[in-house]
Every structure is written in C-alpha cells, then in structure tokens.
Amino acid sequence: MEKIIYIQKFGDLEPGILIKLKKNLKWELKDFIDSVKILPESIPITDSEYDPSRRQYNASLLLSKLIEYTNKKQYFRTLGIIDKDIFSRFLNFVFGVAIILKKHFLKGPGAALISIARLRESFYRRPENEALFELRVLKEAVHELGHTLGLEHCNNNCVMQFSNCLADTDEKPAEYCRSCSNKLKKVLLN
Ligand code: ZN
Ligand code: ZN
Fold first, then answer.
1. Tens digits of per-residue pLDDT, 85-97?
2. Strand, helix or coil at 6?
3. 16 C-alpha to ligand 1 centroid (Å)
4. 4-188: CATH number
5. pTM of the model
6. Residue 3, Cβ neighbours under 10 Å: how many?
7. Distance 161 CA to ligand 2 centre (A)
8. Distance CA 65, CA 58 (A)
9. Ligand with minimal distance to 146 CA
10. Which residues of 104-117 are buried (b: 16+ CB within 10 A; e: fewer)?
11. CA 170 to chain centre
C-alpha cells in the first residue's frame, strides 16, 4: 500500500487552508510517507451530528462517517478536517480525534479528524494571525496522524504532547521527537 495521506474536508472549508496543510504535511512527514493528496469532494455535515444542547458537533459520529465514506477506497490514511467546534464524550472540546489501530494493523488504512474552529485567534476574540493558524493546523494534523500510526502521548519536546488548551499546542513543536520518529520508522519502513 502506497503511504498516501488523503485530506478530506467536511462541509465548507476555505481551499487555501487545505493547500497549505498539504504542503506543510508533505514537508513535515517527508521521512515517513510517500505523498499527500486533497480529496475534491466534501462530506456533508448534518443535523444528526450536531448536539444542540452543547452547540457542538460530535467528533465520534463525524469520524465514523469519515470511515464509512472512505472504507472501500483502502486509503493509507485519511485526515478529515472540519471548521466546526467538536466534542468527544468526556471532554468539553477536542482539537482532533483518531482511530487507534492495533499494532498489526498499522500498515493498513487509518483515519483521523481535526477541527480548526478553535485554532483561529478570532475564536478567542483576538486579531487574526494567519501564520500562527497555519502552524496550529499542521501541529494538530501531525499529532492525530501520529496516533493513527501507533504513537501515544509523549512527554518529550514533541508534537505528540497532549494539548489541553491552545497554549499547549503553541508550546509544542510540529515535529516528532527522536523516540517517536524511531517508532514511526519501525512501523512504516520495515
Ligand atoms: Zn492526542
Ligand atoms: Zn515524542
């Protein structure tokens, strides 16, 4: 299976964001994967994924939908991207979610989803900062893709550090630490 990451948008999303993410992911993951592609179609977002009491979208439902959509295609990794606030069962919000695969299945298809809603400065009523936004999107993408490739949270200076809030995301690098990189190479390059 060729190691291609397919970026899959949900609903409406500025094309510029996807193009930048594609370029940045290609660079960041160059040692691990073959290519990054943007899927042209958008997956519709529906009321059934919306929780009116929380005014947020349900991350697990969206991730299941993503898997349903891409199931037959046998993509190496699919990265869903949505411009809505998402939550996961016990958490007020999440920046992203990923399917954790058992060790033997890491070379098969996998999927993750990131939300960019809370990555913009404007979400916190601060002036927009495009470069910072772009970097945050990259970090969240690299982090969730790391989970789909078998990585757990890491305490090193590493993109796999858990982000509880945006300050955590800003503090960590966009790269995997040496230990995580070695784990990835073991999984992917054998
Ligand atoms: Zn994580
Ligand atoms: Zn690490």
1. 999 987 888 999 9
2. strand
3. 25
4. 3.40.390.10
5. 0.95
6. 15
7. 7
8. 11
9. 1
10. eebeebbbbbbbbb
11. 16
pLDDT digit string (tens) for 49-60?
Answer: 999 999 999 999
Q: What is the DSSP string of 83-98?
A: SS-EEETTEEEESEEE
Tell me the one-letter amino acid at 177: C
Domain coordinates in residue numbering, the chain: 4-188
Task: Point out the least confidently predicted range of 16-25, 81-90, 102-111.
Answer: 102-111
How far away, in angstroms, is 180 Cα from ligand 1 center? Answer: 13
Catalytic positions, please?
144
Q: Among 3, 27, 8, which residue's Cα sits nearest to residue 174?
A: 27
Who contacts 143 (Cβ-Cβ below 8 Å, separation ≥6)? 95, 96, 159, 160, 163
Distance from the alpha carbon of residue 157 to the mean position of ligand 2, in angstroms = 7
Which of the ligands is closest to the CA of residue 173? 2
DSSP symbols for 108-177: S-EEEEEE-GGGSGGGGTS---HHHHHHHHHHHHHHHHHHHTT-----SSSTTS--SSHHHHHHS-SSPP
